[in-house]
Every structure is written in C-alpha cells, then in structure tokens.
Amino acid sequence: MSDIDFPADLISLETAAWEAAQRGELTAEQAAEVQAGITAHAEATGLDRYTVEMELKKLVRHAGSGV
Fold first, then answer.
1. Which pLDDT score is estimated for 40?
2. CB-based contacts of 13, cutoff 8 Å, min separation 6
3. pLDDT of residue 1
C-alpha cells in the first residue's frame, strides 16, 4: 500500500480513468481531470507531483497485489 494518504475522490478519479483506458474509452477531459487532481494533491502535501502520480497509479492498478 502507498505511504501517501490519498483522498477518496482522487482514488475514484484514477480508478475510473484506468477502467476507461482498459476499455479504450479514456477521454482527454477525464485524463486532464486526474492530472489536475494529482497536481493539486502534490501542491497541498508538498510532495513531488511525479511521486504522487506514480504512487496513485500503483495503488489503483496493483490493488491487492502487494506492489
């Protein structure tokens, strides 16, 4: 699990975007919304945006795998 405390709404955004991408239905607007959420969370927590994005993707894409 991630050491970053992600808000539920950001996890939901990333989950929905990942599921849409898997179906080939991810829109630019949906991707931009996720990126805006990542940037806002990084700024609010003082963390690097790239680290936040990487950890969020790991959390969503590898849930339950122990990664």
1. 97
2. 33, 34, 37
3. 52
Give the pair of three-digit tokens for residue 51: 């680290």
Percentage of the chain beyond pLDDT 90 is 87
Question: Which pTM value belongs to this model?
Answer: 0.88
- Residue 14: exposed, middle, or buried by beta-carbon count in 10 A (0-12, 13-18, 19+)? buried
Q: What is the SS3 assignment for 5-56?
A: CCCHHHHHHHHHHHHHHHHCCCCHHHHHHHHHHHHHHHHHHCCCHHHHHHHH
3-state helix, strand, coil in the chain (%, to 5): 70, 0, 30
Q: Which residues contact 67 (CB under 8 A, 6 or more apart)?
A: 58
